[in-house]
Every structure is written in C-alpha cells, then in structure tokens.
Specification:
Blueprint: H1 2-21, H2 27-41, H3 46-50, H4 53-62, H5 65-82, H6 93-111, H7 118-133, H8 137-145
Helix pairs in contact: 1-2, 2-7, 5-6, 6-7
Protein name: TetR/AcrR family transcriptional regulator
Organism: Bariatricus massiliensis
Length: about 150
C-alpha cells in the first residue's frame, strides 16, 4: 500500500502539471482530459496497472481502517485542488472522491480486457459521470448569488 501510495502521489504531481498546462479549458473538459491522461498514464506504473477490484477488496479487508481512510483523505485533498482550476462539484468532496475512486477501479478492470474500444468506453463513462458531478458555469454563478 505504501508503494502504491507513493506511485499515486507521483501521478497526482503529474496531474498538477497537466492542470497547469491546460487550465484554459472549460472545467468539465479539463477534468475529463485530466482523468483520461491519468488513467492512460497507468501504463508507466505496472504495479498500479495490475490493481483491480479484487486487489482493492483485499486491501479493504486486510489493512487497518485508518490506513484506508488516510488514503481516501489524500484522494479528497487532490479533488479539492481541482476547485482551484474552476472545477466545482454538485456533491460533497467525500461523495465525489468515492465516485472517482470507483471509476478508477472500473477503468483498471477495463484495461485488463485489452479491448480495442477501451478509450471509447472510458470516455463515454467519464462524460456521463462528469455531467452528473460537475457544476455548469451558469449554475455556479446562481449558487454564488444565493
């Protein structure tokens, strides 16, 4: 878990670079491209690439609860960073974190299938999830007025 956590921190750092270079994109597109870049970047990290829902389930059963909660907290802090780039969420950070963690595990499972349509499937799923969890800019101004 420590090794995976360190690799994930490296990926978060790469995400920060990506966000800085592409900050002019609209929020939903920025988020989509960022996550696709990260998921596709798993190819560089064979240990993370091999992880799947079975691995996650095993870790949840075997590791102390505090360890898993700390991992989720780290993920939440990275999700909060997205707000600095104009990405605002319709749900709480905790719910957003769990949604994106579930999505990541699904994408890891999908990569094991070696289907020619992986990218298309990932984009369709990501588009639909992001439509649900990211506020449109017009909704943000209404929220700020209230």
């Amino acid at each position: 878990m420590d090794i995976a956590g360190n690799l994930q921190k490296k990926m978060w750092s790469e995400m920060d670079e990506f966000l800085n270079e592409n900050s002019s994109l609209p929020p939903r597109m920025l988020c989509k491209k960022c996550f696709l870049c990260m998921f596709n970047g798993l190819q560089k990290y064979p240990m993370l690439k091999r992880a799947d829902s079975e691995t996650a389930e095993y870790l949840f059963r075997k590791l102390p609860r505090e360890v898993m909660e700390a991992h989720s907290k780290d993920d939440s802090l990275e999700i909060i960073k997205l707000q600095e780039y104009g990405i605002h969420f319709n749900c709480s950070i905790d719910i957003t974190t769990k949604i994106l963690q579930t999505l990541a595990i699904s994408f890891l499972n999908l990569q094991k299938d070696n289907t020619d349509n992986q990218q298309v499937i990932m984009e369709v799923i990501l588009d639909d999830v992001l439509k649900e969890i990211i506020c449109e800019e017009s909704n943000i101004s209404q929220i700020e007025v209230i």
